[in-house]
Amino acid sequence: MTQAKAYKIIRKLKMEKDSYRELLDRHATAANMKLAKAAAEDAEGNAPPTRKFWRSTRDKDISRSIRFFLWMLIHGAYKVGKYWDNIPTHKHRGRCVKCGTHESMEHILTKCSEPGQEEVWDLASEMWQLKTGQDLRPTIGQIMAGGVKRHADPGTTRLYKILITESAHLIWLIRNERVIQGNGPAPLAKIRNRWLRKINTRLAIDCAMTDQLKYGKRALRMSVVKKTWRKTLKGERTLARDWPRTVGVLVGVG
């Protein structure tokens, strides 16, 4: 058994324990699901069924660690903000020092003025503009619905899924390094480089996964990869038609 397989089994067993589920705030889950559904509505106002949101937390287009992040996010299971209000000696942990407000997940991922969220969404928006000509400034509901929201074509939908989830997760990591590990505000150049590395890594994984000899049935079709990253690559017009099989292709952001 591989380490990845063992990790997956351990996490699944942990999440299925009654003691673990009892710790979840069902009211928070319901409220978050309502926000996510509203964010995923189509032009006619129809929202995807609840099962699709939970299925998105197992979506293989989303990195394994980020699937768990989404699951926790929808459940409202992270210990932030008002969680600390009933713990007298730790009430200060519930507030954002920089902004002077409750540090909810919405605040962390979309509103905080500490270096991190604004800079990451600037980069994500720059890439989304290359793809669609539109800005990308997601709400907390749109982040939770990142694996469900549909766009004009499958390639755009898939890129949106990757861009939203990878970016939100990076903001969460940067916050934890500052608040929990005490690393202080992240340098802007480091934030930019980490985001680029994260997205370019996803691009490289996509390219590698087109190897049918190596991955067999799990391999990605080259057409899927090309449609996902179309309009976002550096020097795209000069790339070979089979560019996913080459090394060193990068996104054209920054």
Describe what this molecule looks like in 3D:
This is Reverse transcriptase zinc-binding domain-containing protein. There is one protein chain. The protein has one domain. Strand 1 (95-96) and strand 2 form a beta hairpin. It contains twelve helices and two strands, in the order αααααββααααααα. Helix 9 crosses helix 10. A two-stranded antiparallel sheet has the order 1-2. The protein has 254 residues and is mainly α.
What strand line-up does the widest sheet have? 1-2
Decide which structural class fits the backbone: mainly alpha
Give the overall shape. Answer: globular
Number of strands: 2
Distinct helical segment count: 12
Q: Helix fraction? A: 40-55%
Parts with pLDDT < 50 across at least 5 consecutive residues: none
Fraction in beta strands: under 5%
Protein name: Reverse transcriptase zinc-binding domain-containing protein
Organism: Mycena alexandri
